[in-house]
């Protein structure tokens, strides 16, 4: 069974629902592999009044039969109830039971009237009990249509909504061997991210190259087809989306660049990117000084590191790795890996900023760019301080030219704080230390700070 890590806030919210004297309807959703089922099971580990039914892709009648078989273990009287969803769920609500319908979209596939049936049941019967109904789903689009959108039958009726996201860096480290160096932690995070299924399913007690060769590059690997599987469960015609994700992974990050790479009209690209955003597969970033809705300088990035790795190195290149065999990692992947991981390293540096500058209260943290100017890490504080950071995840020490360039780029950032006056602090994040000239600058100035990988991993 998958190890259970973190999720303390979600566990607390679920257990509050179980203890409530009122009826509760809980919606739990999020993309596949994030541990939704494990979360529910963990929350119910000390209870004997719960029915947990994991639906499969089959007919409605078989689903009803299976549900009754599962429920009868805790509530034997259910075998005497008329076998339709309204009667069965109503009976369990009358018993003040907890009912979990896992993979709820499969139930809707078999019986599209089910959300309306539950709506009627809730309005007329269930909400007068102290029972709990939990609807769990990995198909974000279908969960939205059934429960979250304004025209969905269950809209406004759920009392709790849990939108499960990947684990943060600190929680994800619990899956890693205790002797991992900060560098190994960042490389692993930069490829596998915070998805429990990935972190728990690969053998992280071996070299990273062996992990990637065995589990990702090999056509028999544990994660070799993972991105394709997830996408095909959400998208009926995924080919164009595959092309878009491939373009983004290759560095085509603006709408125009993506449209040209894929070969579609620039005005149509937003239809596809918005869908991918709703599925939590990509996000649109804008410079920190601009409003997301108004900015015309947005850039897209793939959110899941494994998806980004797969579309950059694996998709469409399987034959190459089969030919290279065990040499594939050394020949193709390893030389490009520091550059690949640097994007996630920048995000970690941004996340670490509040803890690295504990005397400051940050209003906003992100990236900034304009024309040829770009700053990896920017933080605006309540007292008018701007922290500007440069991230170098290379084998070479960070030299003075990087600091000078950071100062030049930061000077172009237009920010007017409420205090009126501004003060700039400079943060240098480095994998391989700094040169003597930077050491000398740091010793002579109090506005330049150097952080190594240990600082970042301890504070992200």
Describe the structure.
The chain is an alpha/beta fold. The protein has three domains: 8-163, P-loop containing nucleotide triphosphate hydrolases (Rossmann fold, 3-Layer(aba) Sandwich), CATH 3.40.50.300; 172-339, Orthogonal Bundle (Arc Repressor Mutant, subunit A), CATH 1.10.10; 349-459, Trna Endonuclease, Chain: A, domain 1. Helix content is 45%, strand content 16%. It has 22 helices and twelve strands. It has helices spanning 8-19, 36-43, 60-72, 85-94, 104-110, 114-124, 140-148, 169-172, 182-192, 196-201, 208-217, 226-234, 239-249, 255-262, 269-278, 305-314, 318-324, 328-333, 337-356, 400-410, 436-444, 453-459; strands spanning 24-29, 50-54, 98-102, 132-137, 160-163, 282-285, 299-302, 362-370, 373-381, 385-392, 423-430, 448-451. The chain has a five-stranded parallel beta sheet with strand order 2-3-4-1-5, with helices on both faces. It has a five-stranded mixed beta sheet with strand order 8-9-10-11-12. Helix 9 packs across helix 16 (305-314). The protein starts with 7 loop residues before the first helix and ends with a helix. The mean pLDDT is 95.
């Amino acid at each position: 069974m998958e190890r259970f890590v973190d999720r303390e806030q979600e566990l607390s919210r679920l257990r509050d629902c179980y203890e409530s004297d009122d009826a509760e309807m809980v919606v739990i959703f999020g993309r596949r592999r994030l541990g939704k089922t494990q979360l529910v099971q963990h929350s119910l580990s000390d209870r004997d009044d719960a029915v947990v039914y994991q639906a499969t892709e089959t007919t409605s009648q078989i689903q009803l039969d299976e549900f009754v078989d599962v429920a009868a273990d805790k509530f034997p009287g259910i075998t005497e109830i008329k076998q339709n969803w309204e009667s069965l769920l109503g009976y369990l609500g009358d018993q003040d039971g907890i009912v979990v319908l896992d993979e709820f979209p499969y139930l809707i596939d078999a019986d599209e009237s089910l959300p309306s049936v539950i709506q009627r049941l809730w309005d007329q019967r269930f909400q007068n009990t102290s029972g709990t109904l939990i609807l769990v789903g990995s198909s974000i689009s279908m969960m939205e249509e059934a429960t979250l959108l304004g025209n969905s039958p269950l809209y406004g009726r759920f009392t709790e909504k849990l939108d499960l996201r990947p684990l943060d860096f600190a929680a994800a480290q619990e899956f890693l061997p205790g002797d991992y160096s900060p560098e190994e932690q960042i490389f692993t995070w930069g490829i596998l991210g915070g998805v429990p299924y990935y972190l728990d399913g690969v053998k992280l007690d071996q070299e990273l190259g062996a992990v990637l060769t065995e589990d990702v590059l090999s056509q028999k690997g544990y994660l070799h087809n993972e991105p394709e599987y997830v996408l095909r469960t959400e998208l009926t015609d995924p080919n164009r989306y595959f092309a878009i994700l491939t373009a983004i992974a290759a560095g085509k990050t603006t709408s125009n660049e993506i449209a040209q790479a894929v070969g579609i009209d620039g005005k149509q690209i937003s239809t596809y990117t918005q869908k991918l955003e709703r599925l939590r597969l990509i996000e649109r970033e804008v410079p920190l000084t601009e409003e997301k809705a108004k900015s015309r300088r947005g850039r897209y990035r793939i959110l899941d590191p494994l998806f980004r790795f797969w579309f950059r190195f694996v998709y469409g290149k399987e034959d190459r790795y089969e030919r290279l065999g065990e040499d594939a990692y050394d020949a193709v992947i390893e030389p490009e890996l520091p550059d690949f991981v640097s994007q996630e390293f920048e995000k970690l540096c941004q996340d670490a900023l509040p803890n690295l500058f504990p005397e400051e209260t940050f209003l906003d943290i992100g990236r900034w760019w304009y024309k040829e100017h770009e700053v990896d890490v920017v933080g605006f504080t309540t007292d008018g301080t701007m922290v500007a950071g440069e991230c170098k995840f290379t084998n070479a020490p960070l030299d003075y030219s990087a600091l000078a360039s950071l100062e030049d780029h930061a000077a172009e950032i237009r920010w007017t704080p409420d205090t009126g006056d501004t003060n700039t602090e400079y943060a240098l994040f480095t994998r391989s230390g700094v040169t003597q000239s930077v050491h000398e600058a740091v010793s002579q100035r109090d506005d330049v700070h150097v952080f190594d990988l240990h600082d970042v991993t301890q504070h992200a």
